[in-house]
Automatic annotation (TrEMBL):
<dbReference type="Pfam" id="PF00005">
    <property type="entry name" value="ABC_tran"/>
</dbReference>
<dbReference type="InterPro" id="IPR008995">
    <property type="entry name" value="Mo/tungstate-bd_C_term_dom"/>
</dbReference>
<dbReference type="InterPro" id="IPR050093">
    <property type="entry name" value="ABC_SmlMolc_Importer"/>
</dbReference>
<keyword id="KW-0547">Nucleotide-binding</keyword>
<dbReference type="InterPro" id="IPR004606">
    <property type="entry name" value="Mop_domain"/>
</dbReference>
<protein>
    <submittedName>
        <fullName>Molybdenum import ATP-binding protein ModC</fullName>
    </submittedName>
</protein>
<keyword id="KW-0067">ATP-binding</keyword>
<dbReference type="Pfam" id="PF03459">
    <property type="entry name" value="TOBE"/>
</dbReference>
<dbReference type="InterPro" id="IPR003439">
    <property type="entry name" value="ABC_transporter-like_ATP-bd"/>
</dbReference>
<dbReference type="GO" id="GO:0005524">
    <property type="term" value="F:ATP binding"/>
</dbReference>
<dbReference type="InterPro" id="IPR027417">
    <property type="entry name" value="P-loop_NTPase"/>
</dbReference>
<keyword id="KW-0500">Molybdenum</keyword>
<feature type="domain" description="ABC transporter">
    <location>
        <begin position="4"/>
        <end position="236"/>
    </location>
</feature>
<feature type="domain" description="Mop">
    <location>
        <begin position="293"/>
        <end position="354"/>
    </location>
</feature>
<dbReference type="InterPro" id="IPR005116">
    <property type="entry name" value="Transp-assoc_OB_typ1"/>
</dbReference>
<dbReference type="InterPro" id="IPR003593">
    <property type="entry name" value="AAA+_ATPase"/>
</dbReference>
<dbReference type="InterPro" id="IPR017871">
    <property type="entry name" value="ABC_transporter-like_CS"/>
</dbReference>
Length: 356
């Protein structure tokens, strides 16, 4: 492993362990307050954990609260870790070129060599023509490209990206994502994101944090197609009901009542009483105003919370569940926020699996 992290930050309720292999990009996903930024701060050296260890390419960057081990806290500039934040954070008084040359300069390169390196990186990220401008004279997207060049020119062993596209216009973000995909290939990267596209296009693996702890991890496609955490299900656009496996179905408490959800149980089938999830896509859900009788279908009693257009259909939400139905069905059933009804899904459309 290139990067090994174990970090507990008591004040923030964070206790995380994760690893990143050399040349691997790992996306760190999770809801607000899950602890993603805390992990990045520990790695960057801006936050000292109460207990923990950060080892990068065999070098101990942080060691705290470990009996028998010397306390270590290498300062941020000496960790060979570059952080690309949401905002480009360029030095306003320096030209774009000198901003990028700053890294090589501070690690001992001569002025001319540092500028040459900077020029190459600006070329690589497509803003070489802006080298002579000040940050105030370029757009947000261009500044973020310059920030990518600056981060890479410092020849980091680890790149940290904190929602690098979040502050950009939607029409600029896809191009920067493509550039990142190219320049980050084969680097060791930890990427914090809320965006499932970032995970799919940039990451080899995802780690999902909830409430300060890792709740699942694995290759992107696997986590997004078979999520085990509510967060991963939500970003993958899937419905998830969690409960205990009993007598061939998942017993779920939903909306204050208990119900059984039937589906296709994946191997290995959950043990009796074991925690399991039932997962199904919104397109598999039909909406009814009355409970369907005598059919082998799952029906969840719901109160609709909102409706919005979704790819030629209407996405109807009820709490954490959603259904994609036709415009015609919405009109015929007169669906609106507050309507009480049933979300109905055939057992053959529900995947059931263990959460561990
Ligand atoms: N400077 C701080 N001092 C004390 N507690 C903090 C501080 N920053 C964050 N926290 C708390 O630490 C926990 C983890 O927050 P963190 O910012 O790491 O989450 P996050 O996953 O990055 O969230 P977001 O997606 O909203 O940025 C939260 O409970 C948060 O309220």
């Amino acid at each position: 492993m290139s990067l090994i992290v174990e970090a507990s930050v008591d004040e923030r309720g964070v206790e995380v362990a994760l690893e990143v292999a050399k040349g691997e990009t790992v996306a760190l996903l999770g809801p607000n307050g899950a602890g993603k930024s805390t992990v990045l701060s520990v790695l960057a050296g801006h936050l000292v954990p109460d207990r923990g260890r950060v080892v990068l390419d065999g070098r101990v960057l942080t060691s705290q609260g470990r009996p028998g081990e010397r306390r270590t806290q290498i300062p941020p500039h000496d960790r060979r870790v570059s952080l690309l934040a949401q905002e480009p954070l360029l030095f306003p008084h320096l030209s774009v070129l000198d901003n990028v040359a700053f890294g090589p300069r501070s690690t001992g390169a001569g002025r001319a060599a540092a500028r040459e390196t900077a020029r190459q990186w600006l070329e690589e990220v497509g803003v070489a023509d802006l080298a002579g401008r000040r940050p105030a004279e370029i757009s947000g997207g261009q500044a973020q490209r310059a920030a990518v060049a600056r981060a890479l020119a410092a020849t980091p062993s680890l790149m940290l990206l904190d929602e690098p596209m979040a502050a950009l216009d939607v029409d600029v973000a896809p191009q920067l994502r493509q550039t990142l995909r190219r320049v980050l290939a084969d680097r060791t990267v930890l990427l914090v994101t809320h965006d499932v596209l970032d995970a799919l296009l940039l990451a080899d693996r995802v780690v999902v944090l909830e409430d300060g702890a890792v709740v699942e991890h694995g290759p992107c496609a696997e986590v997004l197609s078979r999520p085990r955490s509510s967060f991963a299900a939500r970003i993958a656009g899937l419905n998830m009901l969690r409960g205990a496996w009993r007598d061939g179905a998942v017993e779920v408490a939903y909306g204050g009542r208990s119900m059984r959800v039937e589906g296709i149980a994946a191997d290995p089938v959950p043990g009796e009483g074991e925690e399991a999830v039932a997962v199904f896509g919104p397109s598999a859900v039909s909406v009814f105003l009355e409970a369907p009788h005598g059919s082998p279908r799952n029906a969840v009693e719901v109160t609709l919370s909102d409706l919005e257009p979704h790819g030629g259909q209407v996405r109807v939400r009820a709490g954490t569940l959603s259904a994609d139905v036709s415009v015609r069905a919405v009109s015929e059933l007169d669906l609106a926020p507050g309507t009480r009804g049933y979300f109905v899904v055939k057992a053959s459309e529900v995947a059931i699996y263990r959460t561990r």
